[in-house]
Specification:
Two copies of one chain form a homodimer.
Chain A lengths: L2 H17 L6 H8 L3 H7 L3 H24 L5 H9 L18 H5 L1 H27 L9 H22 L3 H17 L24
The first copy, chain A, binds a DNA duplex (18 and 18 nucleotides) through α1 and α3.
Chain lengths: ~210, ~210
DNA sequence: GTCTATACGATGATAGAC
DNA sequence: GTCTATCATCGTATAGAC
């Protein structure tokens, strides 16, 4: 059967993480996988098709991980805390977030979608956990759950970015700690008016132009 | 004198913002600036030299803006709030942060430096404002000022990233609002032990390998 | 200082043998 | 399915005229 297909996909996943999409050349994929040109263009239509398959696989893996993390049975906010405190290599970067700023990703909705889907899921899981916590009286029910979700994810991804800029793992760790603190602060404080929930739908529930 | 030099630099600055470093080809710069090959390689040693000059100019401009913002005379934390609430185009992206995740930037310290310098300055200004606030009794003096600075900047840059992933300006705005809330929450609450200042130096004060 | 013409490797894809 | 040529194009830089 297709033995080289897996090798190509695996190499592409690694190279996407390390070099990004634009800098992932077919030649590098071939070298890393041990396959020849023929295998690549037999199993995939070209570079973009390979990258898309690899991205969808990475996105699926990471979504599984998120579901596993959030489908626990403890305190709702404990699951969020677990997400925030996951082990991360700040300098290596967020496996999907790392690609998010590339021009090719912004301009190609097919490539952007698996990345957006992952983040939409994380945001949704945090939103739901915050709502669950509110129903159980563990957090202020006036809190805008979507606002909280977006803010926490932004802290994590921003921490990755700063760690890379400074080539230093510390900012990632500090940002994650800051996110944890914010969550705990929110769980116990009065919420300012502008932070309160409105009837507007969640903004990042689904991505436009997808 | 050098009339085309400015045109080349200006075009490079725009293209770096829009396309990033890897996707900024000399050909595109020439087209956007109206200059020919000769001008480019007369004024600059090559693509990297041009990009470096452009990046340093952008970094200097943005550092001036930050100094202007933080050298005000109001409440120390008011300056930080002003930074957090600056107008931003989330989908277009952070002018310097946008480049931070590229492989070429990570692996070339010369290119990384102007970006890192900008973020180091922002972090330093926030740190100092938090310390000033502590001295004036406006914020808990046990707070780790560096932790706060890194966390707030991470929220802003993470907001940019999410806006780009979702092609939607809303996450950027929500992250900035969340950052504002966190700052205000910190100014009034008890600080958990792990958030407290230690004698360790600020981690991102200067970048390693620079 | 600026231009056009040219060189040359890398990128991304194709052709055809096995 | 996989391999080794081969190819057109682009990205980057140089040469030399004006």
């Amino acid at each position: 059967m297709s033995s080289k297909r897996e090798a190509l996909l695996s190499a592409a996943k690694d190279l996407l993480w390390e070099h990004g999409y634009e800098a992932m050349s077919p030649a590098k994929v071939l070298e890393a996988s041990g396959a020849g040109q023929g295998s690549l263009y037999h199993h995939f239509k070209g570079k973009k098709d390979l990258a898309l398959a690899a991205l969808e696989q990475v996105s699926a893996e990471m979504q599984s991980e998120i579901r596993r993390l959030f489908d626990g049975t403890g305190r709702p906010l404990a699951r969020v805390e677990e997400y925030l405190l996951s082990k991360r290599d700040g300098v290596k970067g967020s496996r999907l977030g790392r690609l998010a700023l590339e021009y090719s990703i912004l301009t190609d909705d097919e490539l952007r979608q698996p990345i957006a889907n992952y983040f939409s899921l994380v945001e949704e899981k945090i939103r739901n956990a915050v709502r669950d916590a509110a129903q159980l009286g563990l957090i202020n029910p006036d809190l805008d759950a979507d606002q909280v979700a977006v803010t926490l994810v932004a802290m994590i991804e921003g921490g990755f970015l700063l760690s890379r800029v400074h080539k230093n793992p510390a900012p990632m760790e500090r940002a994650a700690q800051g996110a944890l603190f914010m969550l705990r602060a929110l769980a116990t404080r009065d919420i300012p008016n502008w932070m309160k929930r409105t009837d507007a739908p969640a903004v990042t529930r689904r991505t436009p132009n997808a």
